C-alpha cells in the first residue's frame, strides 16, 4: 500500500466509505466509524495498528489474515462490514451522541433490509450510545433487530489497550462459535 500523507489523511475527513455487505450474511461486523486511513484508502480497519484483521484470523473467522484491501473477500465467508456512524474522523470522540443515535437508527434499517444472522458491534460504548442500552456488556445482547441477534465486541483499535490480541480473539471466537450453531 502506498504511503498516505498527512494532507491526504486530512482530506479524507468526513468522507463516507462504502459498506462490504450482502443479503443474509452470517455476521455483519460494525465498526464505530471510519478512521481517516480507512477513508483515504477506501478499506475498512486500514490503520496499521488496528487489530481487526489479525483478530478475525486468530479467532477462526478466516483461514489466513486478510489485508484491508482484500475486504471484499469477506463476503465469500458470509461476513461483512459497516459502521455505526458513516463519516470519517481522526478519533471516534469527534462524533456527537446524536450522531451515534442517528447512526443506530440507520443501522437498524440496514439490518432490517440485509437481514444478517448476527450484527457484531465492535465497541461496546458505541453500542450503548447508538442503541440507548447503558447496561450492555461485551457478548450476546438481549436485543434483536427482526431475526438478527446482536453481539457487542471489544473495539479492535490499538487505542483499546486493555484488550490484548489474544483476549480479543477469544471473544471474537465466542461469536464465531455462536454464529456457527444451528438456529443462530
Automatic annotation (TrEMBL):
<dbReference type="InterPro" id="IPR015637">
    <property type="entry name" value="MUG/TDG"/>
</dbReference>
<dbReference type="GO" id="GO:0004844">
    <property type="term" value="F:uracil DNA N-glycosylase activity"/>
</dbReference>
<dbReference type="GO" id="GO:0006285">
    <property type="term" value="P:base-excision repair, AP site formation"/>
</dbReference>
<dbReference type="Pfam" id="PF03167">
    <property type="entry name" value="UDG"/>
</dbReference>
<keyword id="KW-0010">Activator</keyword>
<feature type="domain" description="Uracil-DNA glycosylase-like">
    <location>
        <begin position="18"/>
        <end position="174"/>
    </location>
</feature>
<keyword id="KW-0832">Ubl conjugation</keyword>
<dbReference type="GO" id="GO:0003677">
    <property type="term" value="F:DNA binding"/>
</dbReference>
<keyword id="KW-0804">Transcription</keyword>
<keyword id="KW-1017">Isopeptide bond</keyword>
<keyword id="KW-0805">Transcription regulation</keyword>
<keyword id="KW-0234">DNA repair</keyword>
<dbReference type="GO" id="GO:0008263">
    <property type="term" value="F:pyrimidine-specific mismatch base pair DNA N-glycosylase activity"/>
</dbReference>
<protein>
    <submittedName>
        <fullName>G/U mismatch-specific DNA glycosylase</fullName>
        <ecNumber>3.2.2.28</ecNumber>
    </submittedName>
</protein>
<dbReference type="GO" id="GO:0040029">
    <property type="term" value="P:epigenetic regulation of gene expression"/>
</dbReference>
<keyword id="KW-0326">Glycosidase</keyword>
<dbReference type="InterPro" id="IPR005122">
    <property type="entry name" value="Uracil-DNA_glycosylase-like"/>
</dbReference>
<keyword id="KW-0227">DNA damage</keyword>
<dbReference type="InterPro" id="IPR036895">
    <property type="entry name" value="Uracil-DNA_glycosylase-like_sf"/>
</dbReference>
<keyword id="KW-0156">Chromatin regulator</keyword>
<keyword id="KW-0378">Hydrolase</keyword>
